[in-house]
Amino acid sequence: MVPTSKPEAEVAPRARRTRLTPEREAELYAAVLAELVESGYDALTMEAVAARARSSKATLYRQWGSKSRLVAEAMRHNRPFSLDGLDTGSLAGDIHELAGRMGRAKQDHEVFRAVAAAAHRDPELGAALQEVTIGPVMDTLREMLERAAARGEIVADAPAAAYFPHMLLGAMFGRKLFDRCEPDPEFLRRYVDDAVLPALRHRG
Amino acid sequence: MVPTSKPEAEVAPRARRTRLTPEREAELYAAVLAELVESGYDALTMEAVAARARSSKATLYRQWGSKSRLVAEAMRHNRPFSLDGLDTGSLAGDIHELAGRMGRAKQDHEVFRAVAAAAHRDPELGAALQEVTIGPVMDTLREMLERAAARGEIVADAPAAAYFPHMLLGAMFGRKLFDRCEPDPEFLRRYVDDAVLPALRHRG
Question: Where's the HTH tetR-type domain (chains A, B) (predicted)?
């Protein structure tokens, strides 16, 4: 049903989507994410998504216009792991708690990995990744550091604070790439204690 | 021409390749790398490589057997940036020199990025990446730290030394992902001074 009570200009951008129920939309997004994890972004096809969701390529193009828009919307719809109430009382504890929540959300992790490389080339995907994952995680990391500085665990104006996200990303990606295993909690604990905290305690 | 002077057992594994001249092989490998950078690993097809190199899918399969083997061999053939004589007299200088050499080898960097995600799923690719890039870089990093410790720039048994590659990887990938720009020399200089060196100077 196309809504008619709103002014034309407001309705137009989403009007083409109004034929799908929220339930059907959710099914299609789930199919997109499953295909993404299975094939990677570059090899994902609208045909494969349509087949998995028992839909048609024509429907997908009519509703979303392009593969990158469809994937971006699927990522937005499937908000990942919660960051709420992440406050354990210590910086190391906070990082482990964050890593644990991210680690348990295994599909999100795989979606992130599948999309990260393509996001360099595609601004639409890049924006979705930023909004859904990177932005919220960056905010959480900033708050962690503020609390840690307030407790005196790290110095308040550590120059390394700007590179805190980069150091954590290196632990996640590097563990896979160099050591060919998962960044498990024990590895992260050592990495934080041996590399991250010493850097954050240095006043520059 | 199939060589006949060697014992059968030694010849067999490479015999199927002997019909291509080294020049033709080099052209095919160049086509593989160009396709890889353009399409990413997952979307790369034998058809596209064959078309670019004016060859045929049948030839590619006869010579290499599979896409992952073809890509792995193309990476091995195209040895990246040289690491020879990388010794500037300071750890920061060495890291900048390494980053500069890696940065100038722009295609290698893009090939690495195109293959890194797929290498998690494909042991053949993973082994090629390890042999061509990761292994030599890890050796170079280890030597850098040994020289830096000998000069007294860092402590000899810094617990963070084990995470030196991870921290540098975080700078390269994180700069793109979080800050959406290239890890230029100025960024790397600050990252090394503010995050990496303080960690490496900490005795644990």
Answer: 22-82
Q: How many residues does chain A have?
A: 204
| Domain span holding position B46 | 8-77
Nearest to A64 by CA among A32, A35, A23: A32
A82 lies in some domain: no
Q: Which helix (H) or strand (E) holds A41?
A: none
Tell me which residue in A162, A177, A195 faces B199 most closely, judged by beta carbons.
A195
CA atoms of A191 and A6, how far apart (whole Å): 54
| Cβ-nearest to B117 among A117, A134, A169 | A117
Tens digit of pLDDT at every position of chain B (204 positions): 334 444 434 344 444 545 789 999 999 999 999 999 888 888 899 999 999 999 999 999 999 999 999 999 999 888 767 788 889 999 888 988 887 787 667 777 778 878 887 887 788 888 888 888 888 889 999 999 999 999 999 998 899 999 999 999 899 888 888 888 888 878 888 998 999 999 999 987
Q: What is the ipTM of this complex?
A: 0.73
Distance separating alpha carbons of residues A129 and A79, to the nearest angstrom: 11
Q: What is the DSSP letter of B48?
A: H
CATH number at residue B61: 1.10.357.10
B9, B11, B12, B17: CA torsion to nearest 10: 170
State how many domains chain A has.
2
